[in-house]
Amino acid sequence: MEKSNPKQDAVSLGRRKLLSLGIGTLGVAMGISYLGLFGKFMGPKSVAAATKLQGVGNVGKFPVNTPTLVSYKGAGTDEGVYVINLGSEGFIALDFHCTHLECAVNWVQATKQFICPCHGGLYDIKGTVLSGPPPKPLHRRLVKIEGDNVLIGGRLV
Ligand code: FES
């Protein structure tokens, strides 16, 4: 029978604790990493929560069914946003970046469509894709009416 060495047992026990602590830490790190990826796949519910609202004018400045391009500086850089007064349907705000490769779209009043100059993507006044390569609608932005003022914020989707 082997005789136990208390000093060696203490070192061995220390190593085991250290090893299990390392494995535990690795598990926690993997869990946090997984949650990070999970959050990415689920997509943020609202980027707007992280950005501030910005006033862009009185409601009278925005004629019905005529998108008006404004500049949003809430995220620290100038971002083009179309503010659209849909009359009885209220206001919406659309990011002016095409969802294909991010070119700036232009509103053409004659055809009542947003046109992307890069590859010909077409969207309707609500940002729905009508034709071309864009894979999804124009991104919605937060829009809020406070009194007579129109406020816009970050991307919602
Ligand atoms: S970038 Fe708009 S259609 Fe390609």
Structural features, described:
By secondary structure, the chain is an alpha+beta fold. It is built from one helix and ten strands; from the N terminus they run αββββββββββ. The protein is globular and about 40 Å long. A six-stranded antiparallel sheet has the order 1-10-9-4-3-2, with no helix packed on it. A four-stranded antiparallel sheet has the order 5-6-7-8, with no helix packed on it. It folds into two domains: 43 residues; 109 residues, Rieske [2Fe-2S] iron-sulphur domain (Rieske Iron-sulfur Protein, 3-layer Sandwich). 24% of the residues lie in helices and 30% in strands. The longest helix is centred in the N-terminal third of the chain and has 37 residues. FE2/S2 (inorganic) cluster binds next to loops.
Strand content bin: 25-35%
CATH fold description of the largest domain: Rieske Iron-sulfur Protein
Domains, number: 2
Beta strand count: 10
Number of H- or I-type helical stretches? 1
Strand order of the largest sheet: 1-10-9-4-3-2
Mean pLDDT: 80
| CATH architecture classification name of the largest domain | 3-layer Sandwich
CATH homologous superfamily caption of the largest domain: Rieske [2Fe-2S] iron-sulphur domain
Write the layout of secondary structure elements.
Blueprint: H1 6-42, E1 54-58, E2 68-72, E3 79-85, E4 91-95, E5 106-108, E6 113-115, E7 122-123, E8 129-131, E9 140-146, E10 149-155
Antiparallel strand pairs: 1-10, 2-3, 3-4, 4-9, 5-6, 6-7, 7-8, 9-10
The structure holds FE2/S2 (inorganic) cluster (FES).
FE2/S2 (inorganic) cluster is lined by residues 98, 100-101, 103, 116, 118-119, 121, 132-134.
